[in-house]
Amino acid sequence: MNDINIPIERVRELAKQGDAKMQCHLGDCYESGEKVKQNYKEAVKWYRKAAEQGYAEAQNNLGFCYGNGNGVEKNYEEATKWWRKAAEQNHSSAQYNLGAIYINGDGVKKDDKEGMKWMLKAAEQGHSQAQYDVGANYYYGRNTQQNQAEGLKWWRKAAENGHAKAQYCMGVHYITGEGAEKDYKEAAKWWKRAAAQNHTESQYYIGRCYYFGQGVEQNYSSAAQWFLFAAENGHAEAQFFLGYCYYNSLGVARDYEEAAKWWSKGAEQGEYHCITALAILKKKV
């Protein structure tokens, strides 16, 4: 949507003249509230005008409105109809949405074969979420016959495409060693990429890598920093490690109050080590 740098008055004028691209763009504006007051019903109106002209992006967006009940009553049958029209025009997001609706059986008869067919089409076009889901389906044997090598192939594609959870999964794979030799350096590489995207579990694991010197040079300061990011995102084990760093002056200045703060947060989530450490700290101070 943001690639169209035209005043909204001109967009509306062209949309009224029947320009499908401008109709879709006007629908985008109403859906997001950019340039106009947000109005889902208006978004649906303009998406429909463009969709009925065969404009794939609008068909996909209209399907999304029906699938989520934005501006219209939720109707999976209508969502499926519009997603199929866009998918048949090779629209990758529509192919993914159509695949997901068949795999989940939302409003249609569950059909894993049909679902995987459309997800694969989207994945082959570089749709990162489709690549991740196809990878997970193959890796775990969900909705298709298990094939870990095929799963890893698609996870790698998604990871290289910047998909944070796929990057996390690649890291886990290199640590578990299933289908590959254990490689902490490779695991740390992928976790660091995902962590930079605020993926909490990866922030915790790259923190552990720095803490224990696995795959990277040991660095308590870097470990504490990543534990902090994960801890702020509510990760209980990261809260324990961060508290431990403050308690033992590892990468940060010793601060019993900070240690107590983070262990208390972890204890509130039932994290055993935090509960134990907090009890010991209370006796000490």
Which helices and strands appear, and what pairs or packs with what?
Elements: H1 8-16, H2 20-32, H3 40-51, H4 56-68, H5 76-87, H6 92-104, H7 112-124, H8 128-140, H9 148-160, H10 164-176, H11 184-195, H12 200-212, H13 220-232, H14 236-248, H15 256-268, H16 272-284
Helix pairs in contact: 1-2, 2-3, 3-4, 4-5, 5-6, 6-7, 7-8, 8-9, 9-10, 10-11, 11-12, 12-13, 13-14, 14-15, 15-16
Q: What's this model, at a glance?
A:
With 285 residues, this protein is mostly helical. The protein has helices spanning 8-16, 20-32, 40-51, 56-68, 76-87, 92-104, 112-124, 128-140, 148-160, 164-176, 184-195, 200-212, 220-232, 236-248, 256-268, 272-284.
Distance between the termini: 58 Å
Pick out the low-confidence regions.
none
**Total number of β-strand segments?**
0
Q: Can you give the mean pLDDT?
A: 95
Q: Tell me the domain tally.
A: 3
Order of helices and strands: HHHHHHHHHHHHHHHH
Beta-strand percent range: under 5%
Number of helices: 16
Shape: elongated
What is the name of the CATH topology of the largest domain? Serine Threonine Protein Phosphatase 5, Tetratricopeptide repeat
Name the CATH architecture of the largest domain: Alpha Horseshoe
User: Would you identify the CATH H-level superfamily of the largest domain?
Assistant: Tetratricopeptide repeat domain
